[in-house]
Write a structure and sequence with these properties.
mainly alpha
């Protein structure tokens, strides 16, 4: 058994440089390969996350701008509708005023025509009365001439 232990000791003694080489290789790779690779991967992660955050912020800004534009359009439409309503009211008022003036003028013309017609009727009555008197006188004279003849 002692020879087995001796052989085992020799194997361990021969394995010590390999063990130190593996430990040295571990620290070397850790510092020269894995740490820079980890930093690059971390920077890449931050860059992709940053790009995602920028994209989200950009989408939020675009949505806010769209909402602002929609609000501005609604306000402009409201102003246009109010202006149209005011114009419509003014036109109705003007039309009403013009109609009132036209009615007043028509009534004045009708009153003037009635007055003129009444005056013409009076003149016609006076003319007829004179003519009837003349005709009565002529008839009376012609009857008197027949009776005298």
């Amino acid at each position: 058994m002692e020879s087995t232990l001796h052989q085992l000791g020799e194997i361990l003694l021969k394995a010590v440089p390999t063990f130190f080489l593996v430990v040295l290789l571990h620290f070397y790779l850790k510092n020269m390969f894995f740490k820079p690779l980890g930093r690059v991967l971390h920077q890449r992660y931050l860059a992709t996350e940053g790009a995602c955050k920028l994209a989200k912020e950009s989408l939020e800004r675009a949505a806010a701008k769209a909402a602002e534009y929609e609000a501005a359009i609604r306000a402009a439409r409201g102003e246009v509708y109010q202006a149209q309503e005011q114009i419509h009211k003014r036109l109705q008022e003007k039309e009403s005023a013009d109609l009132t003036v036209a009615r007043q003028r028509a009534e004045a013309v009708v009153q003037e025509a009635k007055a003129q017609l009444a005056q013409d009727v009076e003149l016609a009555k006076a003319g007829l009365a004179r003519e009837s008197d003349l005709l009565a006188n002529q008839i009376a004279e012609s009857m008197l001439r027949r009776s005298a003849a």
